[in-house]
Amino acid sequence: MFIDTHCHLDASEFNDDRNAVIARAEHAGVRQIVIPAIGRSNFSTVRQLAHSFAGGYYALGIHPLFVAHAAEDDLEILAQEVERSLADPRFVAIGEIGLDFFVKDIAQGPPRERQEFFYQQQLKLASAYDLPVLLHVRRSQDIILKYLRRYPGVGGIAHAFNGSDQQADHFVGLGFALGFGGAMTFTRAHQIRRLASRVSLANIVLETDAPDIPPAWLHEDHPRNTPEQIPAIAQVLAQLRDQSVDEIAQATGATSLQVLPRLAAS
């Protein structure tokens, strides 16, 4: 069974053919798709979308790129929505949350401090409700880890991982899986591909981040990524590790269920 652990299926890029995209993913063998929220504006959207098809699941959180536009009471709204969703079997995590130091305008000063405040508050929420997190870690792995160590027991997925070997080991040591997707399919992505071949398969999950991060074969002519690409992404991982696609599907699926326990219980 293939699982797309990170897919923004509610994005406007899917407005014209969302049902067809879901059907093609299912036909390709992708049985479960996790849809993270990015902020208060789409909490209800991801919930409703997840309930609209058999393999839909969702996470609730405030994305670091949207923190600048969030109100202070958005964290209160998030806490209320999380509490409300605890009885919902389709709700699996807090996310997408984290830090982004790639975008220069928010990487320093008050914007960065605001990112860190929202990140820590959401970690606190995950800890209080014993929920995993879907982490955005772009150019921010060390600070992400610094805060994680303050909340032992909080695990989840380091989404679109592109850190060092040492950082990868630290995330794994804290109980996190590393998410690999379209970026791994580019031959020039040497560090990501080396990590994907080195890290224990028991600590890897598959993802698309659709409609973003399209794999190499879509990058020029079809820039929109879709969850149906997961089996082909798995094929690249299988080649890098000299393993079969079946082994990749079985292991990454089992890891997804382990780090997102509510996914397994549904």
Explain the overall architecture.
There is one protein chain. With 266 residues, the chain is α/β, with parallel strands linked by helices. It has a single domain (2-264), classed as Metal-dependent hydrolases (TIM Barrel, Alpha-Beta Barrel). The chain has 10 helices and 8 strands. The chain has helices at 18-27, 43-50, 74-85, 109-129, 141-148, 165-173, 190-198, 230-241, 245-259, 261-265, and strands at 2-4, 30-36, 56-60, 91-98, 133-136, 156-159, 176-180, 204-206. α6 (165-173) links the parallel β6 and β7 (176-180). The radius of gyration is 17 Å and the shape is globular. The model has no long low-confidence stretch (mean pLDDT 97). Pfam families: TatD_DNase. A divalent metal cation 2 binds at residues 136, 159. Belongs to the metallo-dependent hydrolases superfamily. TatD-type hydrolase family. InterPro entries: DNase_TatD-rel_CS, Metal_Hydrolase, TatD-like.
How would you describe this structure in keywords?
single chain, alpha/beta, TIM Barrel, globular
Helix-strand layout with pairing:
Layout: E1 2-4, H1 18-27, E2 30-36, H2 43-50, E3 56-60, H3 74-85, E4 91-98, H4 109-129, E5 133-136, H5 141-148, E6 156-159, H6 165-173, E7 176-180, H7 190-198, E8 204-206, H8 230-241, H9 245-259, H10 261-265
Parallel strand pairs: 1-2, 2-3, 3-4, 4-5, 5-6, 6-7, 7-8
